[in-house]
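Researcher: We are triaging several targets before committing to wet-lab work. For this one, the compound of interest is flavin-adenine dinucleotide. I'm pasting the protein sequence and the ligand SMILES. What I need is the predicted three-dimensional arrangement of the protein with the ligand bound, expressed as structure tokens, so it can go straight into our comparison scripts without reformatting.
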Amino acid sequence: MIFSTRDNGELHQSEVGSPVFDAQYDVIVAGLGTAGSIALVTSARLGLKALGIDRMHCMGGMGTAGSVNGYYFGTKGGIYEEVDAQVAELIGTVYTRSSAYNVDAKKYKLEQMATADGAALAYESTVTAVYLEGKQVVGLQWIGPEGLQSASCKVVIDCTGDAEVCALAGCDTSFGRALDGRAQPFTSVKVFAAGDKVSWRNFDSGCTDQTDSRTLTESILHSHSQHLEETYGEGQRLLHLAPLLGIREGRLIHGEDTLSLAAYFEDALPEEPLFYAYADVDKHGRDHAFESQALQDWFVASNLGAVNISVPVSLGMMTPRGYEGLLAAGRCLAVDHDLSTCVRMNRDMQKSGEAAATATWLAIDEGVSLQEVPYEQLRDILQETGCYNPEQDRGYQFSYPGDRKPAEVIHWLSEPSAIREGLASDRPGVAIWSCRRLGQDVREHLLQWLEGLDDQLRRHSALALGLIGERAALPLLRQMIRERDHYALKDCRKNNQMRGYMAIYLAARLQDAEVVEDLIQLVTDPSEIDRPLYQPEESGSRGKTQKYNDVYYQFFSHATIGLLRIGEAHPHLREPIGQALRQAVGDMGYIQRITQLPFGTYEYSIADNIQSVIEQELVRWEAS
Ligand SMILES: Cc1cc2nc3c(=O)[nH]c(=O)nc-3n(C[C@H](O)[C@H](O)[C@H](O)COP(=O)(O)OP(=O)(O)OC[C@H]3O[C@@H](n4cnc5c(N)ncnc54)[C@H](O)[C@@H]3O)c2cc1C
């Protein structure tokens, strides 16, 4: 048998013969958070001998200890709704009203439901190693109040959020985005009394790497301290800071099925869904320029950041590639960084726990491996609880949190007249993306509209042409850049993009060498910041606060990353581009133009990161 652990961050595997385990289980759920708590409740209810392990002192993870007790989209149905209904019944007894469900009532109810059905709990216990027979996981070791303990099991469900068990077992995982390895920003959640309600608030605190202890510790110290004030106003009395740090993204497993956002856009979807996740590409933070082409095509060039998508999640997306006896549930599912922005919401993560536990039960009950679990049978069980619901396969929708407004189903356009109408409007996003889907089929129309008299139609046609890779868009894109076109499109309820930096993104995507001079001027000319568009009266209060100038940040970051992309395609331009970029970020001046907030704040970190990424790329150019 192989004992597989991590030593100072490195995988360490050794042969250990036939160890004697302290106990045996059908299933061990590692991590009893949002996904894991429902996985344990489901396992126990289905009659499995189950152990749940968590390094904290309660069940529910981010949804209880993390105080994120709100539902932002996700899909309804499944065992979690039963839990929530029982939690709601406790309100008015010892538990008070809260902004969503009461977190302490939920902790209590989860424990009660799991243990009533015979599940064992190990709190204050951290998983430290995995036992393997070849690639089959057969047991776990953890450290808790009694020191090191171990147990054998038929299946481990890794619900640690960060795929800790998968990493201990040596499974392939990835972390963060391609350009700089950064994951979504994290948060320290503040819990406060607002009248007779307990409420919570958070703001992005920067980026961290929770797989690196020093970085993580510094992040905890910085983010918690940001909430500390001399006095707290009425309606905002501090109760506590959530003990579980608000981590949005971590390791993502490489699954038997792995779904990327780019594949989603091509309709290359898994065929055997167990449930649907549902949310927008909820990309926190402002540093869109650093994201992948797929994400920026959607979020920046089409301004569709607020469109919700339904993502089918299969058992293959919970199965680490090449491994048996191991499933992963929660925010580490096998999606890429881009898609993880929307496959992470509380409802959906709870569903992933239910689906993983039900698959485990079926495999054990049928005496087959997890990969051999009969799909129809599994789907039917999940359909009965409401976890799987084919009506939740809703494609693309403009949706609004809560029941603020009914969702609007998006039908991609194919009729030239409808596309023309969309492009001529202030909400051209659907038309732009429709052009991307149609590609060359719409090219002639776009070229014709580009030459017309309707300025809005011309500019939006240039954006659409840029997106389908047509260089005829370039003269107008360059003009929009030179004008610093600060017209903000209106498709989104949040995150509307401005045409000037949309044009920068697209010109760089087209590898336009002619735009280099203008972009160099944008990033190096000290008087750039004096332009009216960077002043609040022009950009509106969202564009510039006293301490952070988002409009300037967007133009500056898109221009610097754009220059790097163009230099990548044109090696002969690397020298002047490199010189200009070093000049642009050589001192702290550019950071101060972006933000007056101090080191340790999110805004400072994204400004600072421009310099780090430039340096990383220029060093790479110099070495090549
Ligand atoms: C700040 C913030 C705000 C959010 N807001 C919303 C919102 O409004 N609405 C919404 O629907 N979603 C929201 N989300 C998303 C959602 O809350 C999370 O994606 C989801 O809770 C993740 O669930 P999980 O089960 O993967 O992880 P978690 O709930 O974090 O559970 C992981 C559990 O594993 C345990 N663990 C970790 N490592 C080990 C180990 N080695 N050994 C033992 N135990 C371990 C942890 O203690 C924890 O209990 C938000 C997320 C954040 C961070």
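Researcher: Any quick observations?
Model: The first helix runs from residue 34 to 45.
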